[in-house]
Write a structure and sequence with these properties.
The complex is a heterodimer of chains A (390) and B (93).
Chain A (H helix, E strand, L loop, with lengths): L1 H10 L1 E7 L3 H10 L4 E8 L2 E7 L3 H10 L3 E8 L1 H10 L1 H17 L5 E5 L7 H10 L14 H11 L3 E9 L2 E8 L13 E4 L3 E10 L1 E2 L6 E2 L4 E4 L12 E17 L1 E19 L2 E6 L9 E12 L2 E21 L2 H20 L4 E13 L2 E13 L1 E4 L1
Parallel strand pairs in A: 5-7
Antiparallel strand pairs in A: 1-3, 1-4, 2-3, 6-7, 8-12, 8-20, 9-11, 9-13, 10-12, 13-19, 14-15, 14-17, 16-17, 18-19
Chain B lengths: L4 H13 L3 H5 L3 E5 L3 E5 L1 E7 L3 E6 L3 E14 L3 E14 L1
Antiparallel strand pairs in B: 1-2, 2-6, 3-4, 4-5, 5-6
The chains are: A alpha+beta (390), B alpha+beta (93).
Organism (chain B): Tumebacillus lipolyticus
Protein name (chain B): Sporulation protein YqfC
Pfam family, one (chain B): YabP
Chain lengths: 390, 93
């Protein structure tokens, strides 16, 4: 029954009323010619309402005058009539088509790439970078991507530190799950070796784990000097010497500190501008006009519309221009020297590592030249100078 | 009713071969489902149609269907389907 109705709807049918004394005769003659009618009802004296196919109407017309029957169309239903109406509303149909096409187009691109997994040693950016190289990035056609198991293998090839990678396409989002390899614990080496000094310094502490300590505390050692020997007392047995040798090492750093520095300070004055960003391209919508400050600091804040995990590519951006005033600061010699010590410490810490311990620090010499203070800083650092040598 | 020579042969054949008489003898087959639906096969046209009475011409005679809110659900050259609350069927040779 539904199938019949769908078929009728597809071909188009009309609801019409026939008026006349010879309607039964008309029905007979039309039926003989193969015209189909359905749901014929009497609605009044000599008035009948019925349904028939659109294509049969022309054939029926010829019979109307022969049977003196008058016809009145009440409803036109079906696809041909809809299509006819659609042709008159071109823009409406164009809009509907545009909607479906753009919906289809937008859902055939990758919109978001998500990385999950317990990342200990690897950076998420590294995985995203590798994924991008094999084609998983925003804007990629989903249909162009190979199968997920191929992508997974490609990802494993790109990042050898991965133990497993899973790639899942969820609509317009691609989620990548990774499991890192647990790095193998290196087996302790048994190669015979000595521990030698890497720097010149005064030994303050020596703790051999294996091997024989060759120097005493408060001894000055030079680079290359054996600190812990792998050759045992018997003079024959060679072992893998290890241990910690902490020594005071001296450094002198030459620095230049500007006495006059400028510092930025906010005055509290600010103006705002509003933008809509389309895929990162900003289009200003509010706050036109020049920024009335000479020195400004610009900060932007983006607000994105989200539905679930989906972030719309159109975002609202507020940019704030804050007025700043440059403030001149003049340092005294003492302040500049203090600053020099701090800088020297930072510089050394960067070179020798966090575990270094500053035991002494002082300014050796300082001279003012061209508005700058030229400083020589002496630092004594307690650090591990032992280094293995085969 | 005058029976022709050919009709007599057909009737005899139908009886001997045990086939339904309607297909051989050009007789109407009328199926009534409850009081709501009536199928008439092998009819010869609509003589009168009102919402309380439908008269169909048959190869011999006519069929009157009485009822209320009668509707011709579908009509084909050899078959008609009637719906409504049917209260009586009268067969006239």
């Amino acid at each position: 029954m539904l199938g019949r109705w769908l078929l009728d709807f597809w071909h188009g049918y009309v609801v019409m009323s026939l008026r006349g004394e010879r309607v039964p005769e008309l029905l007979n003659r039309a039926t003989e010619q193969g015209i189909l009618f359905w749901e014929i009802k009497q609605v009044g004296e000599n008035v009948y309402r019925l349904k028939m196919h659109r294509k049969d109407v022309a054939r029926l017309r010829a019979l109307l005058s022969k049977t003196r029957t008058r016809i009145r169309f009440e409803r036109k239903r079906g696809v041909p009539f809809l299509a006819w109406r659609a042709r008159r509303r071109k823009f409406f149909v164009a809009g509907a088509l545009t909607f479906f096409i753009s919906l289809y187009a937008l859902t055939s691109f990758v919109w978001e790439v998500e990385v999950s997994g317990d990342l200990q040693r690897l950076q998420q950016e590294r995985i995203l970078q590798a994924a991008s190289e094999i084609g998983i990035h925003r804007g990629m056609r989903i249909g162009k991507l190979p199968d997920t198991d191929i992508l997974q293998n490609q990802l494993l090839d790109k990042i050898p530190e991965l133990f497993w990678a899973g790639v899942q396409i969820q609509g317009t989002k691609i989620s990548i799950q990774v499991v890192e390899k647990v790095p193998g614990i290196e087996a302790p080496s048994n190669q015979p070796q000595n521990i030698v000094a890497s720097k010149k310094g005064v030994v303050k502490q020596i703790q051999p784990h294996r091997g024989v300590a060759m120097v005493k505390r408060e001894t000055l050692v030079v680079p290359g000097q054996v600190l812990i020997s792998g050759t045992l007392d018997d003079g024959k047995t060679r072992v893998h010497a290890s241990g910690v040798v902490k020594a005071a090492v001296w450094y002198t750093s030459k620095l230049t500190v500007a006495l006059k520095t400028s510092r930025k300070a906010f005055t509290g004055e600010a103006v705002e501008k509003q933008f809509l960003t389309f895929f990162g391209h900003p289009v200003q919508i509010w706050g036109y006009g020049k920024v009335p400050f000479e020195n400004v600091e610009e900060t932007s804040e983006d607000k994105a519309l989200k539905i679930g995990d989906f972030v719309f590519p159109i975002q609202f951006r507020t940019t704030t221009y804050q007025e700043v005033e440059a403030e001149q600061v003049t340092l005294t010699k003492e302040q500049a020297e203090e600053e020099a010590l701090r800088l020297a410490r930072m510089d050394l810490q960067g070179k020798i590592g966090e575990d270094a311990e500053f035991t002494k620090q002082k300014v050796l010499r300082s001279t003012i030249k061209d508005g700058n203070l030229e400083v020589e800083v002496f630092s004594e650092v307690l650090e591990n100078i032992g280094t293995p040598q085969g | 009713m005058r029976t022709t020579w050919s009709q007599r042969v057909k009737k005899l054949a139908a009886e001997l071969l045990d086939v339904p008489k309607d297909s051989v003898l050009d007789l109407p087959r009328i199926t009534l489902i409850g009081g709501m639906q009536l199928y008439v096969e092998n009819y010869r046209g609509v003589k009168e149609f009102r919402d309380d009475l439908l008269r169909l011409a048959l190869s011999q005679g006519e069929l009157s269907v009485h009822g209320k809110e009668l509707t011709i659900k579908a009509i084909f050259p050899a078959e008609v389907v009637i719906e409504g609350s049917i209260s009586g069927i009268q067969y006239k040779e």
